[in-house]
Design goal:
Number of strands: 31
Strand order of the largest sheet: 3-2-1-4-9-10
Mean pLDDT: 88
InterPro entries: ATPase_NBD, Hydant_A_N, Hydantoinase_A, Oxoprolinase-like
Helix content: 25-40%
Protein name: Hydantoinase/oxoprolinase family protein
Length: 666
Amino acid sequence: MALLLGIDTGGTYTDAVLFDEERGVIASAKSLTTRANYAVGIGKSVAAVVAAEKISPADIGLVSLSTTLATNALVEGQGGRVCLVMIGFDEAALDRNGLREALKGDPVIFLGGGHNGQGEAEVPLDEAALAAELAEKAGHVTAFAVAGLFAIRNPEHELRVRELILQRSDSYSVTCSHELSSKLDGPRRALTSVLNARLINLIHHLITSSESLFAEMKIDAPLMVVQGDGALISAEIAKVKPIETILSGPAASLVGAAYLSGEKNAIVSDIGGTTTDIAVLENGSPRLDADGATVGGWRTMVEAVAIHTVGLGGDSEVAAVKSGFGLALALGPRRVVPVSLLAVDYPDLVQTTLDAQLLRERWQDNFGRFALAVGRESAHLAILSDLERELLAELQAGPMPLEKLVTRRKQAAALDRLVSAGLVMIAGLTPSDAAHVLGLHEAWDRSAAEKAATLFARQKDGRGVPLARSATEVSDMIFNALVTTSSETLLAAALGKDSLLTPGEAVTVLHAAHREDPHPLVNVDIGLRLPVIGLGASAHIYYPEVAARLKTRAVIPGHAGVANAVGAVVGQVRVSAHASISPTDNDGYRLYHSGEPLDFASLEAAAAEAEKCLTCEARELAIEAGAAEINTKFVRRDNIAHINGQEMFVESLLDVTAFGRPRIAR
């Protein structure tokens, strides 16, 4: 029986599990994620589980990878610079679905062309305008996204634009919107395409570095990647459709939670370094969001687990913000490197800097904070400003205290842009540091955490009162802030959209229920009906208290810290092909699918052809995605309108899903 290797690459840790199809998890390991070269952290974890069981790498028959990197990048606003090509749209389309905000100033090309709702070309594609625009923008972007008007009815113009871009340079990656979604709403397809294009370099780097690593380790097995709906796809597909991997880590954690806990119905909360991901298990399966995953505030068209993701994790940036005359703690959404972790690798720099800052009486905003370079992607370097290049060059020798690196406002803005590009990270106080101060976590340098917390506590409010009296007191405040925010987020996620109470009202009730001075006449209480499955390396620290506040039980299963990696290997390949049928003006029926539209005289003839085409397409997609034995399921939904007592056919929606376990080398 072949062994399966599951890997999860998160913002802080890279986990690996060795899985036997009969015995379950037989070994697990954790290593720090190495952003400059992900293969280093992956290699350490894989080597640890291989050594623990004393197996030969040749015994591994499948490698499956889940990751939160795409999710984290969207939450933190990171990614490459892209160019969006809009075919048949005007500039007003940018103001729909947050598309303009998502572009963040990246260039847009508007072209004549596009199709109507029947899949017929409205005007010819303006190839001359495209050539002129490409000549101007070449070399200033890392990838292209292409969205055509009614491209899901007929994708010929999107495909032609991609062909012309690649003729100019095959080094570009080009995302076509019709390949990511079969749904209407062009601006949202454009948004999804932009996000996909922005993520391609990140996920491509992760996968290619992993492939090189496995070749060096003599692991000759198929490589799969977890999608946002928990299904598996081949690494080759993930390289060109990285948007499919948003919520990959959370989806894998749900699959792993069901396997590890044995719970059929529960709320799952997975706390990582950057985000907390909350979702619901129903009858042992993740609840899916057919409307599209929302991550980092962007509503995509990617079908994924119905998940509530917030920028709250063990490595969330801790800040003190003004609240009236006082100060209040704020956590996240940006992830920073914990000071206690930075001190493990750079003890002299961190300790000397913190000691010197502790001797100074007046607090400065950059106390206890450092900057470090985490990668040198050539695609990013090509579009950096001179000041950004200078700052990055200074950091190549090693981390620097922010008070020495940033002495002018322009430098602060340039540093923020480097952080957004994923080339630099900030190190500062985090909940993980607070957990070290409180003795709840022992992996890194506690003394550095105490010094950073002491500095942070010295901040004064408008009345001159310090935030806290000691490192322990401010760490208690951080712990309680994380528990409180986690409880509020769980409650809001559980309520969802259909409730008598809005999430905001429920949070108000939760606060009232836990006031130190309860109301003398009214008993206020609120809680969850389902248990909370806590996942993540720090779940055991926070979730017993979170569950207690929500009047439910906490389930922290064995291997909770590597549930994502477990979910990566126990899942299966599942892909779908979609089509629709609409009536035509001449009493016929038109079938819209992945190719050019087809016309039929009867609805049943169109439906029969749709089932045939979709089954063939879904099976081919499943084979491409890495499935072995494939099963298919056909679903047809006819939408009928009732007008003046008569039925009128509106459209038919048809889907074929192909599914099966991935191929395993034996």
